[in-house]
Specification:
Elements lengths: L3 E7 L6 H4 L1 H4 L4 E7 L15 H9 L5 E6 L8 H16 L4 E4 L4 E3 L2 H9 L13 E13 L4 E4 L3 E7 L13 E11 L6 H10 L10 H7 L22 E4 L4 H10 L7 H14 L5
Parallel strand pairs: 1-2, 1-4, 2-3, 6-9
Antiparallel strand pairs: 4-8, 5-9, 6-7, 6-8, 7-10
């Protein structure tokens, strides 16, 4: 118990796991990949898998710590977001309550997973009786919005996201209703930055399918490196949550990483982090 267990969901964008698994591999005790046994999305659509992916996975897994978990994750009577939460719950049960349950999506790339684990270990006491001491651990996304011919548009400030919990009573995807502890860790999130064809498929098959605002895709298609300053409100559900984009003149993820590390705008201020954590502590002070 008290192991570092990381879970991934396997779907139509499974090839991105080749980027998201390596950063977490060394510091994980065990990695679990949930695959629908019929290879269908939460919308019931089939997707194909190139067998060479599993050859890559076997070759990459030099420490034999990756486990495939196959189950039926498509339930026609449920909404996509409820299936999302259900699959994550089943995956976490497979990972084992009593361990740190970390879920990373295939298009999320940790910059310093070892630091995230070091921060997580400060709260190991929450694993002693997790059902009575529920907690969530959050970090911050840098969201890549759209690749252009020579660069990439990204949301111009970090956005909070939950990655770990000690007790997986998920209510919306990987979020629970427990207290959140915020850390200053950064994760690159490729979110919407794919081809138009790939994005259309994602919008029809992900957990947020029924929440996407009708104007989102048209704005995504329209925006580019020449007009992004003239537009605003880019979030796919509540547009104003992502007010502005910025531009980086490269599509090389290593160069983007170095830029983010050196950018003052994309850092998490300590006073902001302290305020968020105090607010969460006070909110749950009398809820035990």
């Amino acid at each position: 118990m008290k192991k570092i267990h990381v879970g991934f969901l396997f779907s139509h964008d499974y090839e991105k796991l080749k980027l998201s698994i390596p950063p977490v591999y060394s510091a994980s005790d065990r990695i679990f990949i949930a695959i629908d046994e019929n290879l269908v999305t939460w919308s019931g659509n089939k997707f194909d898998v190139d067998p060479t992916f599993f050859e890559w996975l076997k070759e990459f897994d030099v420490d034999n710590k990756i486990e495939i978990y196959r189950d039926n994750f498509y339930v026609p009577s449920m909404t996509e977001i409820d299936m999302d939460s259900r699959e994550r719950h089943l995956l976490s049960l497979k990972m084992g309550i009593g361990n740190w349950l970390i879920q990373v999506d295939s298009d999320e790339y940790f910059y310093d997973f070892e630091k995230f684990i070091a921060d997580l270990r400060k709260f190991d006491h929450y694993l002693d009786n997790p059902e009575k001491n529920k907690i969530q651990i959050a970090a911050f996304w840098i969201i890549l919005y759209k690749y252009t011919e020579k660069g990439i548009l990204y949301v111009d400030k970090p956005m909070k996201a939950v990655f770990a919990t000690n007790y997986p009573n998920y209510t919306c995807a990987r979020r629970t209703k427990a207290r959140v502890i915020y850390t200053d860790n950064i994760i690159l999130h490729e979110s919407l930055s794919r081809t138009e064809e790939e994005l259309r498929f994602k919008l029809e098959n992900w957990g947020h399918k029924r929440q996407v605002n009708p104007d989102f895709l048209n704005k995504w298609i329209k925006v580019n490196e020449n007009n992004y300053k003239e537009l605003n409100n880019f979030y796919y559900i509540e547009p104003e949550r992502w007010k502005r984009l910025n531009y980086f003149p490269s599509t090389d993820l290593k160069e983007i990483k170095e830029f983010i590390i050196s950018s003052k705008v994309l850092r998490i201020p300590k006073i902001y982090l302290a305020g968020k954590n105090f607010g969460q502590w006070f909110k749950f002070l009398f809820k035990r």
